[in-house]
Amino acid sequence: MDFRQALKEKKKIVIKIGTSTITYPETGSINLDKLEKFVRILINLRNKGKEVIVVSSGAVGIGRNVLGYTSRPKEKDVRQACAAVGQGRLMMMYEKLFAEYSQLTAQVLLTKESITNEACAANARNTFDRLAAMHVVPIVNENDAISVDEELYGNFGDNDTMAAHVASLVGADLLILMSDIEGLYTDDPKLNPGARFVHTVGRIDSELERMGKGADTSVGTGGMATKIEAGKIATDAGVDMVIANGDNIYTINDIMAGKKIGTLFLSRGSGYTGGNELAPEREQYRRQAKRMKKEAARKEAVRRDISEKVTSDAGKSISQVKVGGQYYGLRAGNW
């Protein structure tokens, strides 16, 4: 079974878009061009009969820009104030862009209690189900401005794990994390040139978690470790997940077309029995390419020599020729 091609058939899709994808890193302002393209992609998915739920970061980044902060604030109350200001502006832009296609949206702000508390989770699930029945696109974010339940429930920590919880809650078929990284590597490719890209993850184990060690970025909070944690949550709930680079927002279309983009985490119920699929080692790949080029040049030389001999023996009935000490059948197809 081609698990990439199977993504074409996914019906309920949660797409998380990161802060670095929809804002300019220099200023924290909204990248209107990219956000508009993102909305158009979502509309096209809905036109194909897909149900989409958006988990959107960006509120803190947008708010800190509006309030005059040049970097992500360290103080919790300042971050919450930035979130309160930025969330309103972010939602306003989504509403305006979706309205161009006569598509209704709804703001859904969650806290960790929304997931961990059974009654709250049931209410949240019912809300998502009702919005789907009304053909409304939910725009989800953590309610950073009032999240004060960290000691009791903990917070999401980042929107990657929240998106995974949402995907599990609504029974999604697919979770797509659009971020500032291409996917999972066996090591940090910036520090280790021999790091190999991981195309497919069939099982999340301690070795894979070691690969995902990473640091927070200056604009968001989602390092690779949190994405692997999101993969655990999603795949345990029967949801496939793809991590991809949001720099080219049209990558979403490639993923939904079954192309080999990003890292695919397969759910436990997928039926996949193989190991994790890695890209070829870079040095090995170079050697392989060199061998293939050398072999192609040799075959071309043989073809040229055979052609010359056949031409020089024109009019004669021959079935094979000798080139470089080796005989080649003219119809054997081995040259």
Secondary-structure blueprint:
Elements: E1 12-17, H1 19-22, H2 32-47, E2 51-56, H3 59-66, H4 76-99, E3 105-110, H5 113-116, H6 118-133, E4 137-142, H7 150-153, H8 159-170, E5 174-179, E6 184-185, E7 197-201, H9 206-211, H10 224-236, E8 240-245, H11 251-256, E9 263-265, E10 277-278, H12 282-312, E11 320-323, E12 326-329
Parallel strand pairs: 1-2, 1-5, 2-4, 3-4, 5-8, 7-9
Antiparallel strand pairs: 6-7, 7-10, 8-9, 11-12
Characterise the protein shown here.
The chain has 335 residues and is of the alpha/beta class. It folds into two domains: 5-278, Acetylglutamate kinase-like (Carbamate kinase); 282-329. It is 43% helix and 17% strand. The chain is built from twelve helices and twelve strands. The protein has helices at 19-22, 32-47, 59-66, 76-99, 113-116, 118-133, 150-153, 159-170, 206-211, 224-236, 251-256, 282-312, and strands spanning 12-17, 51-56, 105-110, 137-142, 174-179, 184-185, 197-201, 240-245, 263-265, 277-278, 320-323, 326-329. The strands form two sheets. Strands 1, 2, 3, 4, 5, 6, 7, 8, 9 and 10 form a ten-stranded mixed β-sheet that branches. Strand 11 and strand 12 form a beta hairpin. Helix 2 (32-47) packs across helix 4 (76-99) and helix 3 crosses helix 4. The model is unreliable at 150-154 and 214-222 (pLDDT under 50).
